[in-house]
Design goal:
The complex is a heterodimer of chains A (308) and B (189).
Chain A: H1 3-9, H2 15-22, H3 31-40, E1 49-51, H4 63-66, H5 71-77, E2 79-87, E3 90-99, E4 103-112, E5 122-128, E6 132-135, E7 139-140, E8 147-155, E9 164-175, E10 180-193, E11 201-203, E12 208-211, E13 217-225, E14 229-237, E15 251-255, E16 260-269, E17 277-285, E18 295-300, E19 303-306
Parallel strand pairs in A: 1-10
Antiparallel strand pairs in A: 2-3, 3-4, 4-8, 5-9, 6-8, 7-8, 9-10, 11-13, 12-13, 13-14, 14-17, 15-16, 15-18, 16-17, 18-19
Chain B: H1 3-11, H2 16-37, H3 40-57, H4 66-85, H5 93-106, H6 118-131, H7 134-144, H8 150-157, H9 161-181
Helix pairs in contact in B: 1-2, 2-3, 2-4, 3-4, 5-9, 7-9, 8-9
Classes of the chains: A mainly beta (308), B mainly alpha (189).
């Protein structure tokens, strides 16, 4: 046996796991997960809670997301939620959300009901979510070790405000690198409404063309800007599946003080083989909220769009 | 178009099956082949052969997950091509790195107890990956099935590259322990 044999043996990985691994971050509604959730259904001790978000001071709740930056914006467009579920001695609470028309960030707290410290390296064994995105690892609170925090970001290529969404987390486990120990079995289900102010603004754009560094041409049809990110609707000319979309698609912001901030994002679109053009979209998120008035221009593949 | 509808086109011997397959899975198949072969011409040939093999396999097969079915065909064709090229070069790029990483699990070929049949090793890997926690399993598969770069995996899962490398390293260590436990490797290797 050599490394190539071992590499070849990955051919036998189950199809559902291959499919699961393709979903971005934790958008993993894999068969295994569905089965696991079904099997645990009777063991669910906690109650799913539906919560309607209400306005309030939330910058402290969302501080783990942005490190306390831009509290004024966060308080303005973020909302507290407070939906929670308790299972086998652990309570999971969705503290607050902040989002725009296409993307939302969620701040969660996991707490031990008995007040003991949350174990190191704890994590959920599986999750089910409603959109693509990512979740951070669970980090124990330095001041109060009986609680821990994590956050998520979810994004869809369509407006999400007003949707009722459900997120499920199953089995808390500790993974020490060699073996996994289940510390609390069950499913924590959080159901809530994406109800928050729509801070997204459609900028007045006269369609213009850009070319990325791999030579792919796009026509930018609309630009949606919020304090949290930017969403572009575009036409991609002569789409070519042999090229990775957006691999060399550069986008940045110019702020009022002249600073250029490079953004990272992604997007998608579909087309028939041989199609001459395709409708595609792109979303880039900001690391921390940026006030609208601080954004003076957007640079897309070298073309500057000034904002007035 | 949904997978089952595309599969139905194959069963009806409708050539749109290939068009729809290419449209939905062409980019990923290309990426798999290119990550292994690192050569545009060879990659294109393997992807084209993928549609040919799928056309000849469905029917009688009726894959529930068409994407995985096609990815495996592409990967298999690419690995066969890689073996053909192996005397000259070893693909290059991410595949080269992935193979180097996996060779850590084997350490040396001298102390291996026996030649393991590919099928047994495949079943071992299948079970090993299935038992991994979801995140570790996904990352391991992205690296060693799809041969994605560490940077791409980090981006996909919202992790730092260092975090991904740590997870891969820990999982390879687990793999090595299991290989020893199951008798695929000597403990001293």
């Amino acid at each position: 046996m050599n490394a190539l044999d071992l590499y070849d043996a990955f051919q036998a990985v189950d199809d559902d796991i291959l499919q699961r691994s393709q979903m971005k971050a934790r958008n993993s509604v894999a068969l295994k997960r569905i089965i696991a959730t079904a099997a645990c259904f009777l063991l669910i001790l906690g109650m799913a809670v539906t919560a309607e978000a209400t306005n309030g001071t939330v910058s402290n709740l969302l501080a783990p997301l942005f490190g306390g930056a831009q509290t004024e914006i966060v308080d303005e467009i973020g909302v507290p939620v407070g939906a929670s579920a308790s299972v086998n001695g652990y309570t999971l609470t969705l503290d607050a959300i902040i989002g725009d028309r296409y993307s939302v960030m969620m701040a969660y707290t996991l707490s031990r009901d008995d007040g003991h410290p949350v174990p190191e390296n704890i994590d959920f064994d599986s999750e089910e979510f409603w959109a693509s995105g990512y979740r951070t690892a669970i980090e124990i609170d330095e001041e109060n070790p009986s609680i821990a925090h994590f956050h998520e970001r979810s994004h869809r290529n369509e407006p999400i405000i007003g949707r009722i969404v459900t997120e499920s987390f199953t089995d808390l486990v500790i993974d020490n690198g060699e073996e996994e120990t289940v510390v609390a079995e069950g499913t924590w289900e959080i159901k809530y409404t994406l109800r928050y102010p729509d801070s997204t603004e459609k900028l007045p754009v006269k369609a213009f063309e850009v070319t990325d560094e791999s030579g792919q041409r796009y026509k930018v049809k609309s630009i949606m800007l919020s304090p949290l990110g930017i969403h572009l609707d575009m036409v991609l000319f002569e789409p070519d599946y042999t090229k990775v979309m957006y691999k060399n698609f550069k986008i940045s912001l110019i702020t009022a003080d002249g600073t250029e901030i490079d953004l990272e994002g992604g997007g998608g679109g579909g087309w028939r083989a041989g199609a001459k053009k395709a409708n595609v979209s792109y979303y880039a998120e900001f690391d921390a909220p940026i006030p609208r008035e601080d954004i003076k221009a957007i640079v897309i593949c070298g073309t500057t769009y000034e904002i007035h | 178009m949904k997978d089952r509808d595309i599969v139905e086109l194959y069963w009806k011997r409708d050539q749109d099956a290939v068009v729809e397959s290419e449209k939905k899975y062409g980019a990923c198949c290309f990426s798999i082949a290119h990550n292994i072969l690192g050569c545009f011409e060879d990659t294109q040939e393997c992807v084209s052969d993928t549609w040919f093999h799928a056309w000849n396999s469905i029917p009688p097969k009726r894959p529930e997950r068409l994407g995985s079915f096609l990815y495996k065909i592409t990967r298999n064709l690419s690995l066969n091509r890689l073996r053909d090229l192996h005397t000259q070069k070893r693909g290059g790029g991410e595949c080269e790195l992935a193979l180097e990483e996996l060779s850590e699990c084997i350490a040396s070929t001298e102390n291996i107890e026996a030649q393991i049949e590919a099928q047994n090793l495949g079943e071992f890997i299948r079970l090993f990956v299935r038992k991994l926690p979801a995140r570790e399993g996904n990352i391991f598969v992205r690296r060693y099935f799809f041969t994605d770069s560490v940077a791409d995996i980090a981006k996909q899962y919202g992790l730092s590259e260092n975090n991904v490398m740590v997870i891969l390293s820990r999982t390879r260590k687990k793999l090595r322990i299991q290989l020893v436990k199951e008798g695929y490797l000597d403990e001293c290797t």
